[in-house]
Amino acid sequence: MLHCLPSGHAITRGQTLRSVVLTAAVLSLALYATPLSAQETAQRGPDVTLIEGEDRTVYEYRQNGHLRMVKIVPEFGPPYYLVPVNPSEGFGDIDQAELLVPQWRIVEF
Predict the structure, then answer these.
(1) Is the pTM here over 0.85, yes or no?
(2) Alpha carbon 67 to chain centroid distance?
């Protein structure tokens, strides 16, 4: 069966089916490619630097290059966190804080 386009060109049913299949394949590739790249960036999370010493292990948590949190796990005793006295100073960057104080978790769910 022949179909006539407004431009006067004739196309067959096979050509129409091929163009529909090709269009569907290209669209499905575009739909599946976008979530994969977005998912990779969403799962990245913060950068963690692990510093092991003789009597403790230090975890430095960075986000967008800024030091946000420091967790210290001593060889003996509970882990604790170093946090700024005033977290609003330095936009949350611990490197710019004047004074860091220790903080322990009392209950964890």
Answers:
(1) no
(2) 17
